[in-house]
Protein backbone atom coordinates (compact mmCIF):
# COMPACT_ATOMS: atom_id res chain seq x y z
CA UNK A 1 0.00 0.00 0.00
CA UNK A 2 1.26 3.45 -0.74
CA UNK A 3 2.15 5.79 2.07
CA UNK A 4 -0.47 8.29 3.03
CA UNK A 5 1.40 10.73 5.23
CA UNK A 6 2.61 13.95 3.65
CA UNK A 7 4.32 17.05 4.91
CA UNK A 8 2.04 20.05 4.71
CA UNK A 9 3.20 22.77 2.34
CA UNK A 10 4.44 25.87 4.17
CA UNK A 11 1.52 28.08 3.26
CA UNK A 12 -0.93 25.56 4.67
CA UNK A 13 1.12 25.16 7.84
CA UNK A 14 1.28 28.93 8.20
CA UNK A 15 -2.44 29.26 7.78
CA UNK A 16 -2.99 26.71 10.51
CA UNK A 17 -0.50 28.43 12.80
CA UNK A 18 -2.23 31.71 12.09
CA UNK A 19 -5.29 30.39 13.86
CA UNK A 20 -3.28 30.47 17.08
CA UNK A 21 -1.65 33.84 16.66
CA UNK A 22 -4.34 35.86 14.94
CA UNK A 23 -7.83 35.69 16.34
CA UNK A 24 -8.95 39.16 15.36
CA UNK A 25 -7.63 42.50 14.13
CA UNK A 26 -6.47 43.35 17.65
CA UNK A 27 -4.04 40.41 17.54
CA UNK A 28 -2.38 41.96 14.49
CA UNK A 29 -2.19 45.29 16.29
CA UNK A 30 -0.51 43.63 19.24
CA UNK A 31 2.07 41.76 17.16
CA UNK A 32 2.98 44.74 15.00
CA UNK A 33 3.23 47.13 17.93
CA UNK A 34 5.41 44.69 19.83
CA UNK A 35 7.71 44.24 16.84
CA UNK A 36 8.08 48.00 16.59
CA UNK A 37 8.93 48.20 20.29
CA UNK A 38 11.43 45.37 19.90
CA UNK A 39 13.02 47.31 17.02
CA UNK A 40 13.82 50.11 19.53
CA UNK A 41 11.50 52.62 17.90
CA UNK A 42 10.91 55.90 19.72
CA UNK A 43 7.96 56.87 17.56
CA UNK A 44 5.16 54.47 16.63
CA UNK A 45 2.03 55.23 14.63
CA UNK A 46 -0.97 52.94 14.57
CA UNK A 47 -3.45 53.47 11.74
CA UNK A 48 -6.71 51.55 11.64
CA UNK A 49 -9.62 51.42 9.23
CA UNK A 50 -12.98 49.81 9.97
CA UNK A 51 -11.90 48.47 13.33
CA UNK A 52 -8.95 46.84 11.63
CA UNK A 53 -11.04 44.76 9.27
CA UNK A 54 -9.80 46.67 6.21
CA UNK A 55 -6.49 48.01 7.48
CA UNK A 56 -4.07 47.74 10.37
CA UNK A 57 -0.89 49.69 9.77
CA UNK A 58 2.03 50.29 12.11
CA UNK A 59 4.80 52.69 11.21
CA UNK A 60 7.92 52.88 13.34
CA UNK A 61 11.24 54.66 13.31
CA UNK A 62 13.10 51.61 14.63
CA UNK A 63 16.14 49.84 13.33
CA UNK A 64 14.56 48.47 10.14
CA UNK A 65 15.71 45.42 8.18
CA UNK A 66 18.18 44.85 5.40
CA UNK A 67 17.02 43.30 2.16
CA UNK A 68 17.70 39.70 3.19
CA UNK A 69 15.98 40.04 6.55
CA UNK A 70 13.07 41.84 4.92
CA UNK A 71 12.32 38.71 2.98
CA UNK A 72 13.24 36.26 5.70
CA UNK A 73 11.02 37.82 8.35
CA UNK A 74 7.94 36.22 6.76
CA UNK A 75 9.30 32.72 7.19
CA UNK A 76 8.00 30.67 10.07
CA UNK A 77 10.41 30.48 13.00
CA UNK A 78 12.35 33.39 11.56
CA UNK A 79 13.42 35.55 14.48
CA UNK A 80 16.38 37.74 15.29
CA UNK A 81 15.57 37.63 18.99
CA UNK A 82 16.83 34.29 20.19
CA UNK A 83 19.46 31.90 18.96
CA UNK A 84 19.80 29.29 21.66
CA UNK A 85 17.37 27.62 23.98
CA UNK A 86 19.07 29.34 26.93
CA UNK A 87 18.14 32.71 25.47
CA UNK A 88 14.59 31.95 26.49
CA UNK A 89 15.59 32.57 30.09
CA UNK A 90 17.01 36.00 29.53
CA UNK A 91 14.40 37.48 27.23
CA UNK A 92 14.22 41.22 26.96
CA UNK A 93 12.07 41.34 23.85
CA UNK A 94 8.36 40.86 23.37
CA UNK A 95 8.66 38.46 20.48
CA UNK A 96 10.83 35.39 20.21
CA UNK A 97 8.84 32.77 18.35
CA UNK A 98 9.21 34.16 14.86
CA UNK A 99 5.64 33.20 14.12
CA UNK A 100 3.69 36.41 13.95
CA UNK A 101 4.65 37.75 10.55
CA UNK A 102 4.47 34.35 8.86
CA UNK A 103 1.01 33.88 10.33
CA UNK A 104 -0.25 37.33 9.43
CA UNK A 105 1.09 37.06 5.88
CA UNK A 106 -0.74 33.75 5.48
CA UNK A 107 -4.18 35.27 6.03
CA UNK A 108 -3.99 38.85 4.77
CA UNK A 109 -2.54 41.20 2.17
CA UNK A 110 0.65 42.66 3.61
CA UNK A 111 2.76 45.56 2.37
CA UNK A 112 6.01 46.08 4.15
CA UNK A 113 8.44 48.95 3.75
CA UNK A 114 11.66 48.95 5.69
CA UNK A 115 15.00 50.72 5.74
CA UNK A 116 17.97 50.66 8.04
CA UNK A 117 19.54 53.94 9.03
CA UNK A 118 22.88 53.40 7.33
CA UNK A 119 21.43 52.20 3.99
CA UNK A 120 20.63 54.37 0.99
CA UNK A 121 17.63 52.45 -0.19
CA UNK A 122 15.06 50.41 1.60
CA UNK A 123 13.01 47.37 0.62
CA UNK A 124 9.35 47.16 -0.23
CA UNK A 125 7.61 43.80 -0.25
CA UNK A 126 4.05 42.78 -1.03
CA UNK A 127 2.92 39.36 0.15
CA UNK A 128 -0.60 37.94 -0.04
CA UNK A 129 -1.70 34.68 1.51
CA UNK A 130 1.98 33.65 1.98
CA UNK A 131 2.76 34.32 -1.72
CA UNK A 132 5.37 36.94 -2.53
CA UNK A 133 3.79 39.31 -5.05
CA UNK A 134 6.58 41.83 -5.45
CA UNK A 135 9.85 43.02 -3.98
CA UNK A 136 11.51 46.33 -4.89
CA UNK A 137 14.11 48.77 -3.68
CA UNK A 138 12.72 52.18 -2.81
CA UNK A 139 13.59 55.49 -1.23
CA UNK A 140 12.15 55.25 2.26
CA UNK A 141 12.48 56.86 5.67
CA UNK A 142 14.33 54.98 8.39
CA UNK A 143 12.25 52.34 10.11
CA UNK A 144 9.51 49.94 9.15
CA UNK A 145 5.92 50.14 8.05
CA UNK A 146 3.61 47.14 7.96
CA UNK A 147 0.21 47.55 6.34
CA UNK A 148 -2.09 44.57 6.85
CA UNK A 149 -5.19 44.65 4.67
CA UNK A 150 -8.21 42.43 4.25
CA UNK A 151 -7.62 40.22 7.21
CA UNK A 152 -8.89 36.63 6.74
CA UNK A 153 -9.55 37.32 3.04
CA UNK A 154 -8.86 33.64 2.34
CA UNK A 155 -10.68 32.22 5.38
CA UNK A 156 -14.28 33.43 5.04
CA UNK A 157 -15.33 31.47 8.11
CA UNK A 158 -12.94 33.43 10.32
CA UNK A 159 -13.93 36.69 8.71
CA UNK A 160 -17.58 36.04 9.37
CA UNK A 161 -16.75 35.19 12.94
CA UNK A 162 -15.49 38.70 13.62
CA UNK A 163 -17.70 40.76 15.90
CA UNK A 164 -19.16 44.21 15.23
CA UNK A 165 -16.81 47.12 14.57
CA UNK A 166 -17.50 48.45 18.06
CA UNK A 167 -16.40 45.22 19.68
CA UNK A 168 -13.33 44.75 17.47
CA UNK A 169 -12.35 48.37 17.97
CA UNK A 170 -12.62 47.95 21.72
CA UNK A 171 -10.20 45.03 21.55
CA UNK A 172 -7.77 47.14 19.55
CA UNK A 173 -7.91 49.93 22.10
CA UNK A 174 -7.18 47.39 24.83
CA UNK A 175 -4.05 46.19 23.04
CA UNK A 176 -2.95 49.70 22.21
CA UNK A 177 -3.35 50.88 25.79
CA UNK A 178 -1.40 47.92 27.12
CA UNK A 179 1.58 48.58 24.91
CA UNK A 180 1.39 52.35 25.34
CA UNK A 181 1.23 52.11 29.14
CA UNK A 182 4.19 49.77 29.21
CA UNK A 183 6.37 52.15 27.18
CA UNK A 184 6.09 55.80 28.20
CA UNK A 185 9.49 56.34 26.58
CA UNK A 186 7.93 55.90 23.13
CA UNK A 187 5.74 58.43 21.33
CA UNK A 188 2.53 56.73 20.17
CA UNK A 189 -0.17 58.04 17.90
CA UNK A 190 -3.34 56.21 16.96
CA UNK A 191 -5.70 57.03 14.09
CA UNK A 192 -9.02 55.35 13.43
CA UNK A 193 -10.80 56.02 10.13
CA UNK A 194 -8.77 59.18 9.71
CA UNK A 195 -9.33 60.68 13.17
CA UNK A 196 -6.60 60.96 15.76
CA UNK A 197 -7.70 58.95 18.79
CA UNK A 198 -4.54 59.16 20.90
CA UNK A 199 -1.37 61.21 20.76
CA UNK A 200 0.93 60.21 23.59
CA UNK A 201 4.21 62.10 23.78
CA UNK A 202 7.25 60.63 25.52
CA UNK A 203 6.69 61.24 29.24
CA UNK A 204 6.90 59.86 32.75
CA UNK A 205 4.83 56.81 33.45
CA UNK A 206 2.41 58.83 35.56
CA UNK A 207 1.88 61.29 32.74
CA UNK A 208 1.41 58.38 30.35
CA UNK A 209 -1.38 56.96 32.48
CA UNK A 210 -3.00 60.39 32.60
CA UNK A 211 -2.66 60.87 28.85
CA UNK A 212 -4.21 57.50 28.13
CA UNK A 213 -7.10 57.88 30.58
CA UNK A 214 -7.86 61.62 30.65
CA UNK A 215 -6.60 64.48 32.78
CA UNK A 216 -8.82 63.75 35.74
CA UNK A 217 -6.89 60.58 36.47
CA UNK A 218 -3.97 62.44 37.99
CA UNK A 219 -5.63 63.34 41.27
CA UNK A 220 -6.83 59.77 41.69
CA UNK A 221 -3.41 58.16 41.72
CA UNK A 222 -1.24 57.13 44.61
CA UNK A 223 2.30 56.04 43.74
CA UNK A 224 3.57 52.63 44.74
CA UNK A 225 7.26 51.84 45.05
CA UNK A 226 8.97 48.85 46.55
CA UNK A 227 12.36 47.40 45.94
CA UNK A 228 13.12 43.87 47.08
CA UNK A 229 15.50 41.17 46.02
CA UNK A 230 12.98 39.24 44.04
CA UNK A 231 10.88 42.04 42.59
CA UNK A 232 10.71 45.77 42.10
CA UNK A 233 7.20 47.15 42.17
CA UNK A 234 6.45 50.58 40.76
CA UNK A 235 3.36 52.32 39.53
CA UNK A 236 0.10 53.69 40.78
CA UNK A 237 -3.11 52.64 42.41
CA UNK A 238 -6.25 54.69 42.70
CA UNK A 239 -7.49 56.17 45.91
CA UNK A 240 -10.40 54.12 47.17
CA UNK A 241 -12.94 56.91 46.78
CA UNK A 242 -12.34 56.80 43.05
CA UNK A 243 -12.96 53.09 42.77
CA UNK A 244 -15.23 52.18 39.91
CA UNK A 245 -17.91 49.70 39.18
CA UNK A 246 -16.08 48.04 36.35
CA UNK A 247 -12.64 46.66 35.99
CA UNK A 248 -11.50 48.63 32.99
CA UNK A 249 -8.39 50.23 34.41
CA UNK A 250 -6.43 47.43 35.98
CA UNK A 251 -3.04 46.70 34.56
CA UNK A 252 -0.09 44.57 35.55
CA UNK A 253 3.12 44.75 33.61
CA UNK A 254 5.97 42.37 34.22
CA UNK A 255 9.23 43.42 32.66
CA UNK A 256 7.26 45.82 30.44
CA UNK A 257 4.92 43.14 29.26
CA UNK A 258 1.20 43.30 30.02
CA UNK A 259 -0.02 40.27 31.93
CA UNK A 260 -3.19 39.05 33.51
CA UNK A 261 -3.10 37.38 36.86
CA UNK A 262 -6.08 36.65 39.01
CA UNK A 263 -3.72 35.85 41.85
CA UNK A 264 -1.92 39.18 41.79
CA UNK A 265 -5.24 40.97 41.34
CA UNK A 266 -6.31 39.30 44.52
CA UNK A 267 -3.20 40.66 46.25
CA UNK A 268 -4.17 44.18 45.23
CA UNK A 269 -7.73 43.70 46.41
CA UNK A 270 -6.40 42.38 49.71
CA UNK A 271 -4.48 45.63 50.17
CA UNK A 272 -7.78 47.51 49.89
CA UNK A 273 -9.31 45.25 52.47
CA UNK A 274 -12.10 47.05 54.27
CA UNK A 275 -11.79 50.38 52.51
CA UNK A 276 -13.72 49.72 49.33
CA UNK A 277 -17.41 49.88 48.78
CA UNK A 278 -19.00 46.56 48.06
CA UNK A 279 -18.01 45.35 44.61
CA UNK A 280 -16.03 48.50 43.84
CA UNK A 281 -12.91 48.16 41.74
CA UNK A 282 -9.79 50.25 42.23
CA UNK A 283 -7.76 51.26 39.20
CA UNK A 284 -4.16 50.14 39.19
CA UNK A 285 -1.15 50.43 36.92
CA UNK A 286 1.57 48.29 38.39
CA UNK A 287 4.96 47.68 36.88
CA UNK A 288 6.82 44.69 38.24
CA UNK A 289 10.43 43.96 37.36
CA UNK A 290 11.80 40.52 38.05
CA UNK A 291 14.92 38.74 36.79
CA UNK A 292 14.00 37.31 33.37
CA UNK A 293 15.07 33.85 34.47
CA UNK A 294 12.54 33.81 37.30
CA UNK A 295 9.55 33.79 34.98
CA UNK A 296 8.30 31.50 32.29
CA UNK A 297 6.49 33.29 29.50
CA UNK A 298 6.80 30.39 27.15
CA UNK A 299 3.24 29.31 27.62
CA UNK A 300 1.28 30.29 24.55
CA UNK A 301 2.00 32.66 21.68
CA UNK A 302 -0.80 35.04 22.49
CA UNK A 303 -1.41 34.44 26.13
CA UNK A 304 -0.98 37.23 28.58
CA UNK A 305 -0.14 34.77 31.25
CA UNK A 306 3.08 34.33 33.04
CA UNK A 307 4.48 31.87 35.53
CA UNK A 308 6.60 33.11 38.42
CA UNK A 309 9.10 31.19 40.49
CA UNK A 310 7.79 32.45 43.76
CA UNK A 311 4.24 33.65 43.39
CA UNK A 312 3.33 33.71 47.03
CA UNK A 313 6.22 36.01 47.95
CA UNK A 314 5.17 38.27 45.12
CA UNK A 315 1.66 38.28 46.49
CA UNK A 316 2.84 39.31 49.92
CA UNK A 317 5.15 42.03 48.63
CA UNK A 318 2.53 43.47 46.34
CA UNK A 319 -0.11 43.56 48.99
CA UNK A 320 2.20 45.09 51.56
CA UNK A 321 3.56 47.77 49.27
CA UNK A 322 0.12 48.89 48.15
CA UNK A 323 -1.17 48.89 51.69
CA UNK A 324 1.80 50.97 52.65
CA UNK A 325 1.16 53.48 49.88
CA UNK A 326 -2.50 53.80 50.71
CA UNK A 327 -1.59 54.31 54.35
CA UNK A 328 1.12 56.82 53.58
CA UNK A 329 -1.22 58.93 51.55
CA UNK A 330 -3.63 58.76 54.36
CA UNK A 331 -6.33 57.24 52.33
CA UNK A 332 -6.73 54.03 54.17
CA UNK A 333 -8.43 54.91 57.44
CA UNK A 334 -10.69 57.77 56.42
CA UNK A 335 -13.40 56.09 54.44
CA UNK A 336 -16.59 54.78 55.78
CA UNK A 337 -19.16 54.60 53.02
CA UNK A 338 -21.94 54.61 55.57
CA UNK A 339 -22.06 50.91 55.91
CA UNK A 340 -24.21 49.23 58.44
CA UNK A 341 -21.62 48.03 60.89
CA UNK A 342 -23.64 44.92 61.64
CA UNK A 343 -23.28 43.77 58.12
CA UNK A 344 -19.69 44.65 58.06
CA UNK A 345 -17.25 42.14 59.24
CA UNK A 346 -17.57 38.50 59.31
CA UNK A 347 -18.91 37.58 55.96
CA UNK A 348 -17.49 39.74 53.37
CA UNK A 349 -14.03 40.50 54.51
CA UNK A 350 -13.17 37.69 56.77
CA UNK A 351 -11.21 35.78 54.22
CA UNK A 352 -9.57 38.52 52.28
CA UNK A 353 -6.68 38.65 54.67
CA UNK A 354 -5.77 34.99 54.59
CA UNK A 355 -5.90 34.81 50.89
CA UNK A 356 -3.55 31.93 50.55
CA UNK A 357 -5.35 28.83 49.46
CA UNK A 358 -4.96 26.04 51.95
CA UNK A 359 -4.82 22.35 51.54
CA UNK A 360 -8.18 20.84 52.20
CA UNK A 361 -7.82 17.17 52.69
CA UNK A 362 -9.20 15.11 55.48
CA UNK A 363 -6.36 14.34 57.84
CA UNK A 364 -7.77 11.04 58.96
CA UNK A 365 -7.65 9.86 55.43
CA UNK A 366 -5.33 7.00 54.70
CA UNK A 367 -5.36 6.05 51.07
CA UNK A 368 -3.68 2.78 51.73
CA UNK A 369 -6.55 1.04 53.28
CA UNK A 370 -9.75 0.60 51.40
CA UNK A 371 -12.24 0.96 54.19
CA UNK A 372 -10.64 4.11 55.50
CA UNK A 373 -10.91 5.57 52.06
CA UNK A 374 -14.60 4.96 51.98
CA UNK A 375 -15.08 6.34 55.43
CA UNK A 376 -13.26 9.45 54.44
CA UNK A 377 -15.44 10.17 51.52
CA UNK A 378 -18.57 9.33 53.39
CA UNK A 379 -17.59 11.86 56.02
CA UNK A 380 -16.42 14.53 53.72
CA UNK A 381 -18.41 17.68 53.47
CA UNK A 382 -19.16 17.79 57.13
CA UNK A 383 -15.89 19.51 57.83
CA UNK A 384 -14.90 23.10 57.27
CA UNK A 385 -16.89 25.28 54.94
CA UNK A 386 -14.18 24.96 52.38
CA UNK A 387 -13.60 21.32 53.06
CA UNK A 388 -12.21 19.08 50.45
CA UNK A 389 -15.47 18.69 48.75
CA UNK A 390 -18.55 16.82 49.57
CA UNK A 391 -19.67 15.10 46.51
CA UNK A 392 -16.14 14.07 45.79
CA UNK A 393 -16.63 10.37 46.00
CA UNK A 394 -13.69 9.04 44.18
CA UNK A 395 -13.54 5.34 44.61
CA UNK A 396 -10.02 4.31 45.47
CA UNK A 397 -10.02 1.74 42.78
CA UNK A 398 -7.29 -0.77 42.51
CA UNK A 399 -6.69 0.48 39.01
CA UNK A 400 -5.64 3.87 40.26
CA UNK A 401 -3.09 2.29 42.52
CA UNK A 402 -1.56 0.36 39.74
CA UNK A 403 0.24 3.34 38.33
CA UNK A 404 1.59 4.24 41.71
CA UNK A 405 2.75 0.74 42.23
CA UNK A 406 4.55 0.66 38.93
CA UNK A 407 6.04 4.06 39.41
CA UNK A 408 7.32 3.54 42.88
CA UNK A 409 8.42 0.02 43.09
CA UNK A 410 9.73 -1.27 39.84
CA UNK A 411 11.79 -3.97 41.42
CA UNK A 412 8.82 -5.72 42.94
CA UNK A 413 7.95 -9.17 41.70
CA UNK A 414 4.81 -8.66 39.79
CA UNK A 415 2.56 -11.62 39.59
CA UNK A 416 0.37 -11.50 36.58
CA UNK A 417 -2.47 -13.53 37.96
CA UNK A 418 -5.36 -11.20 38.30
CA UNK A 419 -6.74 -12.92 41.35
CA UNK A 420 -3.63 -12.07 43.23
CA UNK A 421 -3.32 -8.67 41.84
CA UNK A 422 -5.45 -6.73 44.22
CA UNK A 423 -3.76 -8.35 47.14
CA UNK A 424 -0.37 -7.51 45.73
CA UNK A 425 -1.36 -3.98 45.17
CA UNK A 426 -2.76 -3.46 48.60
CA UNK A 427 0.23 -4.91 50.24
CA UNK A 428 2.65 -2.76 48.37
CA UNK A 429 0.76 0.47 48.65
CA UNK A 430 0.13 -0.22 52.29
CA UNK A 431 3.82 -0.37 52.90
CA UNK A 432 4.81 2.66 50.88
CA UNK A 433 4.20 4.89 53.81
CA UNK A 434 4.61 3.17 57.06
CA UNK A 435 1.29 3.26 58.84
CA UNK A 436 2.75 2.91 62.28
CA UNK A 437 5.06 5.77 61.81
CA UNK A 438 2.24 8.08 60.90
CA UNK A 439 0.24 7.00 63.88
CA UNK A 440 3.10 7.61 66.26
CA UNK A 441 3.46 11.06 64.81
CA UNK A 442 6.95 10.49 63.57
CA UNK A 443 7.52 13.09 60.94
CA UNK A 444 7.27 11.29 57.66
CA UNK A 445 7.25 14.27 55.36
CA UNK A 446 9.57 17.22 55.04
CA UNK A 447 8.97 20.34 53.07
CA UNK A 448 11.99 21.76 51.35
CA UNK A 449 12.33 25.24 49.87
CA UNK A 450 8.60 25.76 50.37
CA UNK A 451 8.28 23.90 47.12
CA UNK A 452 8.73 20.17 47.48
CA UNK A 453 7.61 17.58 49.96
CA UNK A 454 9.98 14.73 50.53
CA UNK A 455 8.86 11.50 52.05
CA UNK A 456 10.56 8.15 52.57
CA UNK A 457 9.04 5.16 50.85
CA UNK A 458 10.03 1.55 50.94
CA UNK A 459 12.22 1.66 47.90
CA UNK A 460 13.79 5.03 48.62
CA UNK A 461 12.06 8.38 48.64
CA UNK A 462 9.45 10.35 46.82
CA UNK A 463 9.70 14.07 46.12
CA UNK A 464 6.38 15.76 45.48
CA UNK A 465 5.96 19.16 43.82
CA UNK A 466 3.43 20.78 46.16
CA UNK A 467 1.81 23.10 43.67
CA UNK A 468 1.38 20.56 40.92
CA UNK A 469 0.23 17.91 43.35
CA UNK A 470 -2.43 20.15 44.75
CA UNK A 471 -3.53 21.11 41.25
CA UNK A 472 -4.03 17.45 40.51
CA UNK A 473 -6.03 16.85 43.68
CA UNK A 474 -8.28 19.85 43.08
CA UNK A 475 -8.64 19.13 39.40
CA UNK A 476 -9.96 15.64 39.99
CA UNK A 477 -12.25 16.92 42.69
CA UNK A 478 -13.78 19.55 40.43
CA UNK A 479 -14.05 17.21 37.51
CA UNK A 480 -15.79 14.57 39.55
CA UNK A 481 -18.18 17.12 40.96
CA UNK A 482 -19.02 18.42 37.55
CA UNK A 483 -19.45 15.17 35.75
CA UNK A 484 -21.63 13.58 38.37
CA UNK A 485 -23.71 16.76 38.66
CA UNK A 486 -23.69 16.64 42.36
CA UNK A 487 -21.53 19.56 43.30
CA UNK A 488 -22.61 21.11 46.53
CA UNK A 489 -22.60 24.81 46.92
CA UNK A 490 -22.40 27.02 49.93
CA UNK A 491 -25.11 29.60 50.09
CA UNK A 492 -23.80 33.12 50.49
CA UNK A 493 -25.45 35.23 53.13
CA UNK A 494 -25.17 38.26 50.93
CA UNK A 495 -25.11 37.74 47.19
CA UNK A 496 -21.92 38.83 45.56
CA UNK A 497 -21.94 41.38 42.73
CA UNK A 498 -19.04 40.98 40.33
CA UNK A 499 -18.51 43.37 37.46
CA UNK A 500 -17.04 42.35 34.12
CA UNK A 501 -16.51 43.81 30.70
CA UNK A 502 -19.10 42.99 28.08
CA UNK A 503 -16.89 40.47 26.32
CA UNK A 504 -16.20 38.77 29.63
CA UNK A 505 -19.91 38.70 30.36
CA UNK A 506 -20.47 36.98 27.04
CA UNK A 507 -18.04 34.26 28.08
CA UNK A 508 -19.66 33.86 31.47
CA UNK A 509 -23.05 33.49 29.83
CA UNK A 510 -21.77 30.75 27.60
CA UNK A 511 -20.14 28.92 30.48
CA UNK A 512 -22.97 29.31 32.90
CA UNK A 513 -24.17 25.75 32.80
CA UNK A 514 -20.74 24.29 33.44
CA UNK A 515 -20.14 26.76 36.25
CA UNK A 516 -23.43 25.80 37.84
CA UNK A 517 -22.21 22.22 37.76
CA UNK A 518 -19.22 23.17 39.85
CA UNK A 519 -21.46 24.66 42.51
CA UNK A 520 -21.97 28.25 41.42
CA UNK A 521 -25.44 29.66 41.84
CA UNK A 522 -26.20 32.68 39.69
CA UNK A 523 -29.04 34.81 40.87
CA UNK A 524 -28.82 37.13 37.93
CA UNK A 525 -26.61 38.03 35.02
CA UNK A 526 -26.86 41.37 33.21
CA UNK A 527 -24.81 43.35 30.77
CA UNK A 528 -22.01 44.20 33.10
CA UNK A 529 -22.29 42.12 36.22
CA UNK A 530 -23.29 38.83 37.74
CA UNK A 531 -25.01 38.29 41.04
CA UNK A 532 -23.72 35.15 42.69
CA UNK A 533 -25.62 33.66 45.58
CA UNK A 534 -23.86 30.32 45.91
CA UNK A 535 -20.32 29.14 45.38
CA UNK A 536 -18.57 25.77 45.20
CA UNK A 537 -17.76 24.31 48.62
CA UNK A 538 -14.04 24.20 48.15
CA UNK A 539 -13.73 27.87 47.27
CA UNK A 540 -13.92 30.75 49.71
CA UNK A 541 -15.92 33.86 48.95
CA UNK A 542 -12.85 36.01 48.66
CA UNK A 543 -11.36 33.70 46.07
CA UNK A 544 -14.31 33.87 43.73
CA UNK A 545 -13.32 36.87 41.70
CA UNK A 546 -9.81 35.50 41.32
CA UNK A 547 -11.15 32.17 40.14
CA UNK A 548 -13.46 33.71 37.56
CA UNK A 549 -10.81 36.14 36.45
CA UNK A 550 -8.35 33.34 35.86
CA UNK A 551 -10.96 31.36 34.02
CA UNK A 552 -11.78 34.21 31.66
CA UNK A 553 -8.09 34.66 31.01
CA UNK A 554 -7.76 30.98 30.22
CA UNK A 555 -10.58 31.22 27.73
CA UNK A 556 -9.05 33.92 25.60
CA UNK A 557 -8.69 31.46 22.79
CA UNK A 558 -12.37 30.69 22.86
CA UNK A 559 -14.66 28.33 24.63
CA UNK A 560 -14.25 24.64 23.96
CA UNK A 561 -17.10 23.26 21.95
CA UNK A 562 -18.36 20.28 23.85
CA UNK A 563 -19.36 20.30 27.45
CA UNK A 564 -16.79 17.68 28.32
CA UNK A 565 -13.89 19.87 27.38
CA UNK A 566 -15.64 22.88 28.86
CA UNK A 567 -15.72 21.08 32.18
CA UNK A 568 -12.13 20.10 31.74
CA UNK A 569 -11.06 23.67 31.06
CA UNK A 570 -12.97 24.98 34.05
CA UNK A 571 -11.61 22.29 36.35
CA UNK A 572 -8.08 22.99 35.19
CA UNK A 573 -8.43 26.69 35.58
CA UNK A 574 -9.95 26.48 39.04
CA UNK A 575 -7.32 23.99 40.13
CA UNK A 576 -4.67 26.39 38.92
CA UNK A 577 -6.10 29.38 40.79
CA UNK A 578 -6.74 27.56 44.01
CA UNK A 579 -3.76 25.28 44.31
CA UNK A 580 -1.28 26.09 47.01
CA UNK A 581 1.56 28.00 45.44
CA UNK A 582 5.25 27.36 45.42
CA UNK A 583 6.69 29.43 48.23
CA UNK A 584 3.96 28.59 50.73
CA UNK A 585 4.96 26.88 53.96
CA UNK A 586 2.82 23.92 54.81
CA UNK A 587 2.30 22.35 58.19
CA UNK A 588 3.26 18.72 58.57
CA UNK A 589 -0.40 17.78 58.55
CA UNK A 590 -0.98 19.70 55.35
CA UNK A 591 2.02 18.06 53.76
CA UNK A 592 0.79 14.62 54.74
CA UNK A 593 -2.67 15.35 53.51
CA UNK A 594 -1.38 16.61 50.24
CA UNK A 595 0.79 13.57 49.64
CA UNK A 596 -2.04 11.24 50.58
CA UNK A 597 -4.51 13.21 48.50
CA UNK A 598 -2.24 13.03 45.52
CA UNK A 599 -1.81 9.31 45.66
CA UNK A 600 -5.53 8.84 46.03
CA UNK A 601 -5.98 10.49 42.64
CA UNK A 602 -6.86 8.60 39.53
CA UNK A 603 -3.82 9.88 37.77
CA UNK A 604 -1.35 11.03 40.40
CA UNK A 605 1.65 11.07 38.10
CA UNK A 606 1.06 14.36 36.36
CA UNK A 607 -0.54 17.71 37.06
CA UNK A 608 -3.63 18.63 35.01
CA UNK A 609 -1.14 20.37 32.73
CA UNK A 610 0.79 17.17 32.15
CA UNK A 611 3.78 18.14 34.26
CA UNK A 612 5.23 15.49 36.59
CA UNK A 613 3.86 15.80 40.13
CA UNK A 614 6.48 13.72 41.84
CA UNK A 615 9.70 11.89 41.28
CA UNK A 616 11.13 8.95 43.14
CA UNK A 617 14.66 8.16 44.03
CA UNK A 618 15.57 4.62 44.80
CA UNK A 619 18.03 3.75 47.49
CA UNK A 620 20.23 2.18 44.83
CA UNK A 621 20.34 5.49 42.99
CA UNK A 622 21.37 7.24 46.16
CA UNK A 623 23.93 4.51 46.86
CA UNK A 624 25.39 5.05 43.43
CA UNK A 625 25.91 8.71 44.11
CA UNK A 626 27.91 7.85 47.20
CA UNK A 627 29.89 5.14 45.46
CA UNK A 628 32.35 7.46 43.74
P1 LIG B 1 9.42 37.59 16.56
O1 LIG B 1 8.95 38.94 16.95
O2 LIG B 1 8.90 36.52 17.44
O3 LIG B 1 10.90 37.50 16.37
P2 LIG B 1 7.97 38.11 14.11
O4 LIG B 1 7.38 37.18 13.11
O5 LIG B 1 7.08 39.03 14.82
O6 LIG B 1 8.77 37.22 15.15
O7 LIG B 1 9.12 38.93 13.42
C1 LIG B 1 10.17 38.25 12.77
C2 LIG B 1 11.42 39.08 12.72
O8 LIG B 1 11.23 40.17 11.84
C3 LIG B 1 11.81 39.72 14.04
O9 LIG B 1 12.59 38.85 14.83
C4 LIG B 1 12.61 40.94 13.60
O10 LIG B 1 13.94 40.58 13.34
C5 LIG B 1 11.96 41.29 12.27
N1 LIG B 1 11.01 42.42 12.43
C6 LIG B 1 9.68 42.33 12.56
N2 LIG B 1 9.12 43.54 12.68
C7 LIG B 1 10.12 44.43 12.66
C8 LIG B 1 10.19 45.87 12.75
N3 LIG B 1 9.08 46.61 12.93
N4 LIG B 1 11.42 46.44 12.68
C9 LIG B 1 12.53 45.69 12.51
N5 LIG B 1 12.52 44.35 12.42
C10 LIG B 1 11.34 43.72 12.49
MG1 LIG C 1 7.01 39.62 16.92
UniProtKB/TrEMBL annotation:
GO terms under cellular component: mismatch repair complex
Task: Cite the MutL C-terminal dimerisation domain residue spans from the record.
Answer: 444-586
Superkingdom: Bacteria
Note whether Ribonucleoprotein occurs among the keywords: no
PROSITE patterns, alphabetized? DNA_MISMATCH_REPAIR_1
Q: Name one GO biological process term.
A: mismatch repair
Tell me where in this chain the DNA mismatch repair protein S5 domain is found: 209-327
Q: Name one GO molecular function term.
A: ATP binding
> Would you identify the family this protein belongs to, as annotated?
Belongs to the DNA mismatch repair MutL/HexB family.
Which NCBIfam families does the protein's record reference?
A: mutl (TIGR00585)
The name under which this protein is listed is DNA mismatch repair protein MutL
Q: Which organism is it from?
A: Flavobacterium sufflavum
Instruction: Tell me the classification of the organism that encodes this protein.
Output: Bacteria, Pseudomonadati, Bacteroidota, Flavobacteriia, Flavobacteriales
Q: What's the encoding gene here?
A: mutL
